[in-house]
Amino acid sequence: MKTGTLAGGGLIIGFNLFNACKPNAKPPVNLAELNYNDFNAFIKIADNGAVTIFSPNPEVGQGVKTSMPMIIAEELDVAWKDVYVEQGILDTDNYTRQVAGGSQSIRFGWDALRETGATARQMLINAAAARWGIDPSECTTQEGVISNAAGEKLGYGDVVNEAAALEIPENVTLKEVKDYKIIGTDVTNVDIEKIVKGDPLYGLDYKTEGMVIASVMRPPAFGQKLESFDDTAAKAVDGVLDVIRFEDKIAVLAKDNWSAMKGKKALKAEWKADSKLESTEDHDKLLLGLLDGKKFETLRADGDVKKAFAQADKVLERTYESPFLPHNCLEPMNFYANVTADKIHLVGPIQTPEGTAKNIAELLERDFKDVHLEMTRIGGGFGRRLYGDFAVEAAMISNLAKKPVKVVFSREDDMADGIYRPSIKYRIKAAVKDGKVTGYHLKEAAINSNMYGLIPNFFPAGAIENYQVDVAKYDSNITTGAWRAPYTNFLAFAEQSFFDELAELMEVDKIQLRLDLLQKVKGTTDERIQYSPERMEKVIKTAVEKSGWGTKPEGVYQGFVNYYCHNSHVAEVADVVLENGSPVVKKITCVVDCGIVINPLGALNQIEGGIIDGIGHAMYGDFSFLNGVPQVTNFDKYRLIRMKEVPIVETHLMKNEYSPTGLGEPTLPPAGAAIANAFKAATGKRLYKQPFSKYPDLLQGPEKEIIG
Amino acid sequence: MPTYQLNINGESRSIEVSEDTPLLWVLRDHLNLVGTKYGCGIALCGACTIHLDGVAVRSCAMTMAQVGGKSITTIEGLSKDGTHPVQEAWKEVDVPQCGYCQAGQIMTASAFLKDNPDPSEAEIKDAMQGNICRCASYTRIYKAVEIAATKMAK
Known about the structure:
The complex is a heterodimer of chains A (708) and B (154). With 708 residues, chain A is an alpha+beta fold. Chain A contains 17 helices and 26 strands. In chain A, strands 9-10-7-17-14-15-16 form a 7-stranded mixed beta sheet, sandwiched between helices. A 5-stranded mixed beta sheet of chain A has the order 12-20-19-18-13. Chain A is globular, with a radius of gyration of 28 Å. By secondary structure, chain B is of the alpha+beta class. In chain B, strands 2-1-5-3-4 form a 5-stranded mixed beta sheet, with helices on both faces. The longest helix of chain B has 16 residues, at 138-153. Chain B is globular. The mean pLDDT of chain B is 97. The chains are: A alpha+beta (708), B alpha+beta (154). At the A-B interface, helix 5, helix 7 and helix 16 of A face helix 1, helix 4, helix 5, helix 6 and helix 7 of B.
């Protein structure tokens, strides 16, 4: 940190610090010379002591607009009731990693946010101490008030202007966990009032004077290009203003949404295939072919799996299969763009504001500094809004139309023009020798892209002497990408179903098998292994205890899963009963170790949502293609989990003082396996393919009750 | 284009739209009442739920002719200041994640509880089955409906 940075921004700091905070608070935008550590990029303190904190990361429903400012407020030492939170805009000079993805906002922000709050607090103390002519160490703070030994008091607002002119202190002291007053308390979502009143918050709600709506026709099949089109009928629709072709798409511009949709329906277009039109049936054969083949990239290899299998007493090999999945954010994709000679104004729901803004600047051959991007509250992301295709479309159309434009996807557009969770198949093989697991070989065959580099080092890496992870892929013209808990959202089902079955084959206790394997990881010097066998063991034992594992009355069947991803350790136990011969999920007991929990109220929401989302997609999520065309495009044929299918979720958070880790994703992957293992216990039938509802014969209990 | 006289949130509004325009888009684009959300356009997600003469209906599948002279209540008109018992319960439980579906959930719940002030678990689940929450905040939606019922009984 340098004092020079303050000299550059001093005037603006004074302006910010003394301005009224609500409701027209604006984040500092011209602080080019301020660096990330300067507290004014985040905090504004009014002379009445009211504090505005700018939350830098996109709010996608994961709660960071509440939890990130909580961390700053804790170290700043202000009362939460005096804090007003405002969404920060894209500001690459003052913020780093303005991304909502990978469950990493809190984990990466933890140190910086605490230091930001603590630095600001120290500067305010220093200003007060200077005024009193005493050493700063003689001052204390409590909820926005600085006191000295003589009992004199100054509010933060009283000294804020002097504080802004001071040198930025280095190496500030951070609070100890036991002294937290805000972190670890239940704090309600900062936007709750606006949400329940229906105030405009979302991209779809955003409006400006002169804005037009663009409804875009895109190729109906993946692999098609636009040959020709006739817009006569479309232009005749009341309210339609213009029809513009760009790339292989046609935008119908209208004064309102309904006119734009009607205009699009009236468009006539001819399409031709310029690459293979693919079908799910082809993909199934291709992926199985990859698993049967020999062409793999090896991501991790310990020992010699071939030898382990050759010497094994018993070998288990199973194949698990998953479909493509659309994200189906309830707020369909949309974005606003107004491209003018001096500015590119972008507004809307985006998980990757920086990357999207840079992409658009490059595409339109403009300076990145011309781009002004504002993030709206996001009506669901799940990974879909990591990709800014819809924002790029808005910018391209606005650039051509010379008008402010909002691109709005219909639900059908949203489902048919997705960037889907790719279809993936896993084959797992294990060797058992003298009652021990001696070999483990995981193969992945995926559409377009394979697992990221951390996954091969997840459990059971390090626990089995001979261990190998091989991957292969098929390049498709169907667009694919991240979907909540990428890869692990299905891999956890495959591996944890496999362990369940492996324990049955070995005739050993299912929990003991896992615990035994974990012992071998303790004390590992392998730096690639980031999961903690000790933390996982505690989570497993807590889940056994809290779920009443093995002690349930007759007729209640349980399934157990433990999993590590996004740096968090999780165990889930599903309780299932048979109703009219079919297994029904009644309860999930979930144990999570995600380190220090910032906001338990928000954390529980993420945990429960993740579990129910995981159950829903494992049960019902199905998406297929025929000759490049998605076979379902709305909720009449695409089933999402609803109220009546939802079990009770009971959550237990491990209490410790580890730095916080991810929570938006980690509870989703284990859910599918937990219910599948419980279904097996109930019906005697094991599931290898998702979605489960597609295989009704496997969801039928035994003819007669299992006795004993 | 025909002119329609609509009774919305206690106010009479005159609107000129093509006759096939769904009420949802009249609310959002013509009357600037954007609390009512677009989710699917085929009455299957519940995000666009409003009250028509006190009954919860899907505004995305409702034509101007069907609306007629009936009185429309949107989330903006449910209460003046967000203090309807259902809204209060939603705040108390801290229901939302992304929040996008919640106006529709609240409108479904408030119409349901008016007709059935002392619902059973099964009745609540039946009533809310038509509203999708993609973030799956269902356990809190359920709890908030239960709490709202208690508040309304007082």
